[in-house]
Amino acid sequence: MSRYSFRQDWRLLLVVAALAVSLPAASQEPATAKPEVLDSKVLFEKLSNFGHCPLYSISFDDAKPAGTAETTKQIEEIGKLLSENSNLKIRIGVHTDNDGNAKTLLDLTKRRAAALRDVLIKAQKINTAQFTIEGYGDTKPQADNGSDEGRARNRRIELIKIF
Fold first, then answer.
1. Residues with Cβ within 8 Å of residue 68, at least 6 apart in sequence
2. Among candidates 51, 49, 126, which has minimal Cα distance to 81?
3. Residue 89 and residue 131 in contact, taking contact as beta carbons nearer than 8 Å
4. E strands present in 21-155
5. CATH code, 81
6. DSSP label of 143
7. Residue 3 lies inside a defined structural domain of this protein
Protein backbone atom coordinates (compact mmCIF):
# COMPACT_ATOMS: atom_id res chain seq x y z
CA MET A 1 0.00 0.00 0.00
CA SER A 2 1.43 3.36 -1.03
CA ARG A 3 1.63 6.37 1.21
CA TYR A 4 -0.64 9.34 0.64
CA SER A 5 1.21 12.24 -0.90
CA PHE A 6 -0.12 15.78 -1.01
CA ARG A 7 2.37 16.39 -3.82
CA GLN A 8 0.50 13.90 -6.04
CA ASP A 9 -2.81 15.66 -5.35
CA TRP A 10 -1.16 19.02 -6.07
CA ARG A 11 0.01 17.80 -9.50
CA LEU A 12 -3.47 16.55 -10.31
CA LEU A 13 -4.90 19.91 -9.28
CA LEU A 14 -2.48 21.67 -11.66
CA VAL A 15 -3.56 19.42 -14.54
CA VAL A 16 -7.24 20.05 -13.80
CA ALA A 17 -6.62 23.80 -13.58
CA ALA A 18 -4.74 23.77 -16.90
CA LEU A 19 -7.63 21.94 -18.57
CA ALA A 20 -10.14 24.39 -17.12
CA VAL A 21 -8.20 27.33 -18.55
CA SER A 22 -8.13 25.75 -22.01
CA LEU A 23 -11.90 25.18 -22.13
CA PRO A 24 -14.00 27.80 -23.92
CA ALA A 25 -15.55 30.38 -21.64
CA ALA A 26 -19.28 30.30 -21.11
CA SER A 27 -19.58 33.65 -22.88
CA GLN A 28 -18.53 31.93 -26.10
CA GLU A 29 -21.70 29.86 -26.09
CA PRO A 30 -24.63 31.25 -28.05
CA ALA A 31 -27.31 32.41 -25.68
CA THR A 32 -31.02 32.19 -26.22
CA ALA A 33 -31.07 35.98 -25.80
CA LYS A 34 -28.96 38.36 -27.88
CA PRO A 35 -25.42 37.06 -28.40
CA GLU A 36 -22.72 39.03 -26.62
CA VAL A 37 -20.66 41.53 -28.62
CA LEU A 38 -17.01 41.16 -27.61
CA ASP A 39 -14.94 44.33 -27.57
CA SER A 40 -11.49 44.57 -29.15
CA LYS A 41 -9.68 44.07 -25.82
CA VAL A 42 -11.58 40.86 -25.09
CA LEU A 43 -10.98 39.65 -28.66
CA PHE A 44 -7.25 40.30 -28.29
CA GLU A 45 -7.14 38.53 -24.92
CA LYS A 46 -8.91 35.44 -26.26
CA LEU A 47 -6.70 35.32 -29.36
CA SER A 48 -3.58 35.72 -27.20
CA ASN A 49 -4.63 33.10 -24.66
CA PHE A 50 -6.43 30.53 -26.81
CA GLY A 51 -5.40 31.29 -30.40
CA HIS A 52 -9.03 31.54 -31.53
CA CYS A 53 -12.28 33.21 -30.62
CA PRO A 54 -15.74 32.13 -31.80
CA LEU A 55 -18.28 34.92 -32.35
CA TYR A 56 -22.03 34.50 -32.38
CA SER A 57 -23.04 38.16 -32.62
CA ILE A 58 -22.63 38.53 -36.40
CA SER A 59 -25.71 37.58 -38.35
CA PHE A 60 -26.34 37.57 -42.07
CA ASP A 61 -29.09 38.32 -44.55
CA ASP A 62 -28.22 35.54 -46.99
CA ALA A 63 -24.59 36.37 -47.84
CA LYS A 64 -24.44 39.96 -46.54
CA PRO A 65 -23.81 40.96 -42.92
CA ALA A 66 -27.19 41.90 -41.44
CA GLY A 67 -27.71 45.51 -40.50
CA THR A 68 -28.40 44.69 -36.86
CA ALA A 69 -26.78 46.72 -34.09
CA GLU A 70 -24.95 43.62 -32.80
CA THR A 71 -23.53 42.74 -36.22
CA THR A 72 -22.39 46.30 -36.91
CA LYS A 73 -20.83 46.70 -33.46
CA GLN A 74 -18.99 43.34 -33.65
CA ILE A 75 -17.55 44.15 -37.07
CA GLU A 76 -16.43 47.53 -35.71
CA GLU A 77 -14.70 45.76 -32.80
CA ILE A 78 -12.90 43.39 -35.19
CA GLY A 79 -11.77 46.44 -37.17
CA LYS A 80 -10.62 48.14 -33.97
CA LEU A 81 -8.73 44.98 -32.93
CA LEU A 82 -6.82 44.91 -36.20
CA SER A 83 -6.23 48.69 -36.24
CA GLU A 84 -4.84 48.68 -32.70
CA ASN A 85 -2.65 45.62 -33.31
CA SER A 86 -1.01 46.15 -36.69
CA ASN A 87 1.26 43.10 -36.26
CA LEU A 88 -1.68 40.79 -35.55
CA LYS A 89 -2.70 38.47 -38.37
CA ILE A 90 -5.91 36.45 -38.23
CA ARG A 91 -8.03 34.10 -40.28
CA ILE A 92 -11.73 34.86 -40.28
CA GLY A 93 -13.60 31.58 -40.64
CA VAL A 94 -17.32 31.44 -41.35
CA HIS A 95 -19.24 28.33 -40.27
CA THR A 96 -22.85 27.18 -40.51
CA ASP A 97 -25.07 24.34 -39.38
CA ASN A 98 -25.97 21.40 -41.62
CA ASP A 99 -29.40 22.65 -42.67
CA GLY A 100 -29.08 22.27 -46.44
CA ASN A 101 -26.91 20.85 -49.18
CA ALA A 102 -23.22 20.68 -48.18
CA LYS A 103 -22.00 22.27 -51.42
CA THR A 104 -24.53 25.10 -51.13
CA LEU A 105 -23.58 25.70 -47.48
CA LEU A 106 -19.89 25.83 -48.37
CA ASP A 107 -20.58 28.36 -51.11
CA LEU A 108 -22.77 30.41 -48.74
CA THR A 109 -20.07 30.61 -46.07
CA LYS A 110 -17.47 31.59 -48.68
CA ARG A 111 -19.72 34.42 -49.88
CA ARG A 112 -20.31 35.50 -46.27
CA ALA A 113 -16.57 35.50 -45.60
CA ALA A 114 -16.02 37.64 -48.71
CA ALA A 115 -18.74 40.06 -47.57
CA LEU A 116 -17.05 40.39 -44.16
CA ARG A 117 -13.74 41.02 -45.90
CA ASP A 118 -15.32 43.75 -48.02
CA VAL A 119 -16.84 45.50 -44.98
CA LEU A 120 -13.55 45.37 -43.09
CA ILE A 121 -11.66 46.82 -46.07
CA LYS A 122 -14.16 49.48 -47.13
CA ALA A 123 -15.87 50.59 -43.92
CA GLN A 124 -13.16 49.81 -41.38
CA LYS A 125 -10.15 50.62 -43.64
CA ILE A 126 -8.29 47.45 -42.61
CA ASN A 127 -5.22 46.32 -44.53
CA THR A 128 -5.86 43.01 -46.30
CA ALA A 129 -2.40 41.79 -45.27
CA GLN A 130 -3.69 41.47 -41.68
CA PHE A 131 -6.29 38.81 -42.34
CA THR A 132 -7.42 35.99 -44.55
CA ILE A 133 -10.92 34.61 -44.95
CA GLU A 134 -12.30 31.11 -45.25
CA GLY A 135 -15.79 29.65 -45.60
CA TYR A 136 -16.08 26.21 -44.02
CA GLY A 137 -19.74 25.38 -44.62
CA ASP A 138 -20.87 22.74 -42.16
CA THR A 139 -17.53 20.86 -42.10
CA LYS A 140 -16.38 21.91 -38.60
CA PRO A 141 -19.31 21.64 -36.20
CA GLN A 142 -18.76 22.43 -32.52
CA ALA A 143 -22.01 20.81 -31.42
CA ASP A 144 -24.58 18.25 -32.51
CA ASN A 145 -26.78 19.60 -35.29
CA GLY A 146 -29.69 17.57 -33.89
CA SER A 147 -31.01 20.43 -31.74
CA ASP A 148 -31.75 24.12 -32.21
CA GLU A 149 -29.11 24.95 -29.59
CA GLY A 150 -26.48 22.81 -31.34
CA ARG A 151 -27.23 24.34 -34.73
CA ALA A 152 -27.01 27.84 -33.20
CA ARG A 153 -23.59 27.00 -31.78
CA ASN A 154 -22.41 25.81 -35.19
CA ARG A 155 -23.46 29.08 -36.90
CA ARG A 156 -20.48 31.22 -36.00
CA ILE A 157 -17.61 33.36 -37.12
CA GLU A 158 -14.27 32.26 -35.75
CA LEU A 159 -11.22 34.47 -35.47
CA ILE A 160 -8.04 32.39 -35.56
CA LYS A 161 -4.64 33.85 -34.77
CA ILE A 162 -2.04 33.21 -37.47
CA PHE A 163 1.38 32.65 -35.93
1. 59
2. 126
3. yes
4. 52-55, 60-61, 64-65, 90-95, 131-137
5. 3.30.1330.60
6. S
7. no
